Amino acid sequence: MAAKQAKSDFAAEQRQFNEAIGSGDLKSVYLLSGEQAYLRLQNRDKLVKALIGDGDAMNLSRYTGADVTARELIEMAQTLPFFADRRVIVLENTGLLNPKSASRSVTGSKTAASIAEEADKIAAFIPEIPDTTSIVFVEENVDKRGRLYKAIAKSRKEKQGDILECVTPGEADLRAWAGGVFRKNGFSVSGRTLALFLEYTGEDMQNIAGEAEKLCCYCMGKKEITEQDIKDVCSPRIRDRIFDMIEAIALRDRKKALGIYMELCALRTAPQVILSLMRRQFNQLVMIKELSGTMPDGEIASKVGVPPFVISRKYKPALRMYNTEELVEALNDCIAADHESKSGRIDAGIAAEMIIVKHSGRE
What is the CATH number of the domain that holds 219? Predict the structure, then answer.
């Protein structure tokens, strides 16, 4: 059987995180990372509120991008809070925890080496953070081999810091969360309709929340959201375009496959999200290939986690263009690339492009 993606128990880690800040067990340094921007930002806001309360702009400092310097950060951290118990410093998308990746998106004098140098200075300061200051790093990608990450991880072991990796929840948890969004707004939604909704939106929780809001506004005055409502309102999902890209790869149409990839990047789809969705779809294709002929489409759909009509209309026609060996090789390449990119050994965008080029170039 196909290898399944190993997921950390995010739900349990999130509960522990919530319990700690709810009980007042606050730390000197935090790292919120992972591909789910919705969860990163939600936890950032929750954490800032717990650390400093509402409306205390005097003791809250925010830095975004790669322009922050270690000297500036350390001076701010050593400044006593103004008529309060704590000063909070939020550093978001600075690239300090992944200098190589950050340097590709920064112009001017900032290089991977210069960003890494600033990160090392901050790493040395982590054990010296005053009791009156908390520093919160919010980053999508981190290099766990870097000194700054290791310093935060050590602080966590010593109960002075915490790390929460905001990964994509499992499919059942994601479906339950999306269903809860609709119920909270007074709408009922069937399991089949909810499955179709997630087929449109993909796994990005920000996209799910945005599309759910559109649906709720469109269905105002109704009690139930239907499949037709979704078709009328929701934007074509990212996963559909990923599937189109995989079909282009199977047809050896490298130009089209790379064109779709660039289109997704232009729509600000994170390369890590693209890579994860490629992995997921190749995994589903392998499973469907192995199960076809041994059980009805409905049972296959239940095991794979997609609506039955998707099996017959989309996946099976695509499978005619692949043999099992090609699918398994592509899946293994995606698994390796996903792991390497999350470990900081390779940029997610480069990894995705390499897979597209490799598997669309066969004769």
Answer: 1.10.8.60
Residue 239 φ/ψ, nearest 5 degrees: -65, -30
Q: What would the mean pLDDT of 96-109 be, rounded to a whole number?
A: 63
Determine if the pTM surpasses 0.85: no
pLDDT at res. 109: 54
Residues 6 or more apart whose CB falls under 8 angstroms from that of 176 comprise none
What are the structure tokens assigned to 148, written together?
Answer: 């700054």
**How would you class 108 by CB atoms within 10 Å of its CB: exposed for 0-12, middle for 13-18, buried for 19 or more?**
exposed
197, 213, 233: which is the final residue of a domain?
Answer: 233
| 8 A C-beta contact, residue 94 and residue 66 | yes
252 in the same domain as 147: no
Residues 227-245: tens digit of each pLDDT: 999 988 887 667 678 888 8
Pairing of strands 29-33, 87-92: unpaired
Task: Report how far residue 164's alpha carbon sits from residue 17's, in angstroms, rounded to the nearest whole number.
Answer: 8
pLDDT tens per residue, range 338-360: 888 877 788 888 999 999 999 88
Task: Tell me: do 53 and 177 sit in the same domain.
Answer: no
- pLDDT 10s digits, 42-55: 999 999 999 998 77
